Amino acid sequence: MPQEKILMHRISHCAAVSYPLLELGYVSIGWLEYAIHQDLPAQLDSLDFVRFVNRLGHNKNRHCLIRFVQLKPGDLLVIPRPGIFSVYRVTQSARPICQLSIPAHLKTTNNQPIVQNDRKFLTVNGRAIDLGFFIGVEPVAVGIPRRQYAVSSLNAKLKYFGTNLDITPLAKEVTEAVSNFKQNKPINIYENIMEKAAGLILNEINTSLSPAQVEKLVKAYFERINASDVMIPPKNSQEKKDYEDADVVAVFDTLKTVFYVQVKKHRGQTGDWGVEQISHYKELKDSSSDYTTIAWLVSTADEFSERARQLAEETGVRLINGLEFSKMLLDVGMSTLNQFI
After folding, report:
1. What is the DSSP string of 198-248?
2. Count of domains observed in the chain
């Protein structure tokens, strides 16, 4: 299936008329003399039209017209304006402007009436407007702030001062900008860096550390956030009655809170066993503590099983996967963690 084209199209020519037309769902381009020429081919998206344009003169900008009329329904137009850009989907292929019916009392941006003469071409105050062709469009996303949503490669194309430019290779960047704009998720340099750095840290943890060292890393995290006391309980403690278990216990006396943490060095997915262990450990300790108790399951895996997530919700256990834990380490600083493990 052919990929949809994406055309960056700048509205500057006859802008006082072009922008009101855009609000009606039409994007226009100049070249009126071509639109009224007796040899204009019936099929604008054909090779005949390309030959027609080339035959009339070797204007260096003629390719802008050819790119415009070759757009098909489903293709996208990215229209830049100062500080923002908008994305429209083509709904109607290019046609001569004489085939456009405008509503009565349509006005320019400076409040002048736009009318059509007897040949159906647009005029303002009796003067013909140099708009020769139009396509139908519908909005996909309008008024996207460039600085917050356009990555550098897309922003560079939006600065192009020609009439239009094929930016189909930037389909991913355009799609992500639209999606992020609709979700109100602007570009966040901090988050982007954290995401990439956390992935590197997680890979190093999984590659270089033993399960016991991962436990020490969790212990180091609590020490860095100023816990009053942090310990790794003995594996065969006499206090345990069954399979309940915590690998790290962190006490915050000021907050009268204790964290019980089960730690798993896994790849891929962590199941529900860790939730069972830490939730039962919390139950065991709750009866003998007047502190608020919080249970965590920290895993170096990418995700948790559906059963683990369900059980965690039922028992109040917080699940922390490897990427989230790596970001937590970044937040508290990595420079001195070696001494803890």
Report:
1. HHHHHHHHHHH--HHHHHHHHHHHHHHTT-SEEE---TT-TT--SS---SE
2. 2
Residue written as token pair 């990595």: 334
Please name the residue that has the structure tokens 């001569």: 96
Give the closest residue to 282 by CA, choosing from 311, 309, 306.
Answer: 311
Long-range contacts, 231-239 (Cβ 8 Å, 24+): 239/284
The rounded distance, in Å, linking the Cα atoms of 332 and 178 is 33
Q: Confirm whether 188 is domain-assigned.
A: no
Residue 252: name the closest of 215, 286, 227 by CA: 227
Tell whether 1 is covered by a domain.
no
Residues contacting 36, CB < 8 A, separation 6+: 96, 98, 119, 121, 132
In this structure, the answer to whether residues 177 and 209 fall within a common structural domain is no
Residue 272's CB is within 10 A of a number of other CB atoms, namely 19
Pairing relation of β-strands 26-29 and 133-145?
A: antiparallel
**126 to each of 62, 123, 129, 182, how far by Cα in Å?**
27, 6, 9, 42
Output the pTM of the full model. Answer: 0.60
Is 191 a member of any domain? no
Amino acid at residue number 179: S
What is the rounded distance in angstroms from the CA atom of residue 128 to the CA atom of residue 117? 8
95 and 170: one domain?
yes
CATH of the domain at 258: 3.40.1350.10
Residue 68 lies in a domain: yes
- What is the C-alpha separation between 155 and 146, in angstroms, rounded? 7
The CA distance from 221 to 42, in Å, is 71
Confidence band for 58, pLDDT divided at 50, 70 and 90: low
- On whether the CB atoms of residues 209 and 219 are closer than 8 A, the answer is no
Distance of CA 299 to the CA centre of its chain: 27
Range of the domain at 261: 205-340
Q: What is the pLDDT of residues 133-183, one digit of tens each?
A: 999 999 999 999 998 899 889 988 998 888 899 999 999 999 999 999 999
With beta carbons less than 8 A apart as the criterion, state whether 63 and 148 touch: no
**Residues 19 and 148 grouped into a single domain:** yes
Residue-wise pLDDT tens digits, 301-335: 999 999 999 999 999 999 999 999 998 888 887 65
